[in-house]
From TrEMBL:
Keyword Transmembrane helix attributed: yes
Transmembrane segments: 80-103
Provenance organism: Limnoglobus roseus
Keyword check for Transmembrane: yes
NCBIfam families registered for this protein in UniProt: IS66_TnpB
Pfam families: TnpB_IS66
Coiled-coil residue spans: none
PANTHER family documented for this protein: BLR8292 PROTEIN, PTHR36455
InterPro entries attached to this UniProt entry: Transposase_IS66_Orf2 (IPR008878)
Cleavable signal peptide: none
Name used for this protein in its record: Transposase
Keywords of the record: Membrane, Transmembrane, Transmembrane helix
Length: 119
C-alpha cells in the first residue's frame, strides 16, 4: 500500500532515460544519489524533456515502480543552488509536482484532455 506521508522522498536532479527499469534505477540510486534503494525511501527521476517521471521504492518485499506522463507541460522540480545531484522534498511538494503544479506558482495551470486523432 502507498504511504506517502511516512516516506522520505529524494529527487534525482539529473535527467534519466525513461527506458530504465527496476535494477538500473536502483543502481542509479546507489551510484549517483548515494542512497540505499532498500531503505523504503522514494526516489523520483524525470526525463530530459521533463514531461515524464518514475518513482522507485522498496515496499518491503520487492521494488515498486510508478510512472506518470503529463499530457501537456512539464514537471517542475525545485531550483537548487550549487552542485547537487539530488534533493530531499516533502510529501506535499511531491503531490504538487505530480499534479503538474509549478512550485512557485500562485495558481495551478489547467490542462485539457487530449483530443483523439481523427480517423
Amino acid at each position: 500500500m502507498l504511504n506517502l506521508a511516512a516516506a522520505t522522498i529524494f529527487l534525482g536532479l539529473e535527467p534519466t532515460d525513461m527506458r530504465k527499469s527496476f535494477d538500473t534505477l536502483a543502481a542509479r540510486v546507489r551510484e549517483h544519489l548515494h542512497g540505499d534503494p532498500l531503505s523504503g525511501s522514494w526516489f523520483v527521476f524525470r526525463n530530459r524533456a521533463g514531461d515524464r517521471l518514475k518513482i522507485l521504492y522498496w515496499d518491503g518485499d520487492g521494488f515498486a515502480l510508478w510512472q506518470k506522463r503529463l499530457a501537456k507541460g512539464a514537471f517542475e522540480f525545485p531550483k537548487v543552488i550549487g552542485p547537487a545531484i539530488g534533493v530531499a522534498i516533502t510529501a506535499t511538494d511531491l503531490a504538487l509536482i505530480l499534479g503538474g503544479v509549478a512550485l512557485n506558482a500562485k495558481r495551478r495551470m489547467r490542462y485539457t484532455r487530449p483530443t483523439p486523432p481523427a480517423g
